[in-house]
Amino acid sequence: xxxxxxxxxxxxxxxxxxxxxxxxxxxxxxxxxxxxxxxxxxxxxxxxxxxxxxxxxxxxxxxxxxxxxxxxxxxxxxxxxxxxxxxxxxxxxxxxxxxxxxxxxxxxxxxxxxxxxxxxxxxxxxxxxxxxxxxxxxxxxxxxxxxxxxxxxxxxxxxxxxxxxxxxxxxxxxxxxxxxxxxxxxxxxxxxxxxxxxxxxxxxxxxxxxxxxxxxxxxxxxxxxxxxxxxxxxxxxxxxxxxxxxxxxxxxxxxxxxxxxxxxxxxxxxxxxxxxxxxxxxxxxxxxxxxxxxxxxxxxxxxxxxxxxxx
Length: 311
Prior knowledge:
single chain; 17 helices
């Protein structure tokens, strides 16, 4: 039973966002998470391995597998030893999709021993619904109930970032890093906050720390964005181009187009934006940028008699 409880805590504790996760990877992750809830770690590992075969850089799968290895090897020092009965019941209702009962037991758990855990899971419940105000209230209550419970600070910072409250996000992410100074995700989150605040030097430094710990595509993507913002278009383009070996998304082609545009390579920029448009649903910005570049090329080609065409 203790292993099941640890698994319940683990799948929520280690969850983080990934800009490049595919639908099949997400589906496999859900299946692995369900096996964690029931304590069937061997089956969970099989699905995590399937994810990593598709995408070796899937950070969710990497983190969850690392945590499961801790549990399987009996190294449980970094995990909570006990969860309130109400939280355990709530997670069982979460597994079968009964949100009403899940919420009921999470609220009940806030009145019991280990209330900080109930508040933390309650924050996750609201965050999944984009109810950021209630999520923040729950995370703050979690850290108030237990000041050394680090995950509450990390999730607080992420929610504040998602809300666009960048200045407010700095303090909780710094607090989290006092507990976990080698956490690549935390440095990546801090770098993104600093980037949003226009603190490019600080963003660059923290992004580099994240990359030194875990050289994954997500963090290299962030590095390329910082370089683009600094006007280092060639360096930025080289990184975005290298990412195509692992992932191909509309956003990467968009940034490649912006880099080529800034470098004056309008033909390549037009091709980049054409590919970005093909990889997304209707996007007015991409279409407008495509037409802007196409007009520039047409004007240039009118002078030389050439024909403008996306490759």
